[in-house]
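Researcher: Here's the sequence for the chain we discussed earlier.
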Amino acid sequence: MKITEIKQNLLAGKFDEQLKMINCRDDIENEKDRYAKLLDQALAKFGDDEAHLICAPGRTEVGGNHTDHQQGRVLAASVNMDIATVVVPCANACEYYAEGFEVKPVSVDDLAIKEEEKFTSESLIRGTLARFKELGYHIGGFKAISHSNVLQGSGISSSAAFEVLLGTILSEIYNDGKIDHVEIAKIGQYAENNYFMKPCGLLDQMACSVGGFVTIDFKDKQNPIVEQVKFDFAHSDYALCLVDTKGSHADLSDEYGLMPKEMKDVAKVLGKEVLSQCTKEEFLKNIKKIREQCSDRALLRAIHFFNETDRVIDQVNALKNNDLETFKKLIIESGYSSYMYLQNVYTTKDIENQNLSLALAISEQLLQNSGAYRVHGGGLAGTIQAFVPKTMLEEYKNQMNEIYGDGSCFVLSIRPVGGYKII
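Model: Thanks. This is the structure I predict for it:
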């Protein structure tokens, strides 16, 4: 279908049900306007060619705070913030246009790793193409123009959304949409590890690609166990809020790195590489021995891991049983464990400024016996997550925006699908 025809169908309401589904709301006028503007831009840049509308969402971590690097369990979900794209197939190059980004064309015939492309969008495009080809899938070029409302630096994972978008484009255009979402996530991780040159896990890509709530057990890191958890959050009585507390992540790399390192130090005393290879009972029996070689904080972080990775099982079961009261209780327990044992709610480099701690304390006061709250993502700075009753949403949102500035509180929902082709 040509770009002008797609726009006519869009404005005539032919894609309304799909837009309602991926945006988790009935009012989609803003989304229709968003896609209409993208189509206008594509028409001006590419001409009236055959095109597709393809999108990929960001994600949120729900359970399993700092468990993935120990090959533990996580619970995550895709959210209704995404990268929306108009894609036009073409011959031998991939051209990607997005406001605020300058991305050079990537040749389909040149798929070698390039050191100078480290940490660039070009590297992710090239890496995705290369992995598709290595796995025996069809590849080809495309021209794409996109708009993203995935928050950067908030733990929603804009890079994984981009990787899943690329995989979905190649799957839909050149492979009849037959490449499953788990495979697309693995391809995204491959591109990020080998071409972007960042050693990431698989959590972000899997949550963005599979869609809805997804639980992952990373014990076998080559073959993680992935399960989509069916739960209709959009029609529950709760909203998902992320609060950007405006803390800076600058100069925190060392502190982030110490979390996996200290957990691995504990595992090493027990003769293992990561904590998922140890049992909690084995750990408890050897605390004296471990303490002789590791810090007390390392032991506390290990306790967090063992409890947190098991807590994911309970969270999943609560969702499956439609038991939101138990689910909320477990969310709060996860947050307390991160605060007390993992100790990633504030940095010891600046203990007078505790943005996350304050946001959690305020959330506890506002949502007592009603909602749930926890640190979100890596911690130390950035965002908290809260499940807020819709009857209290305006009060909660206004309070957080007043404290941390207008636009600090983002209201999200859990999107039921990951990478998706509208047309």
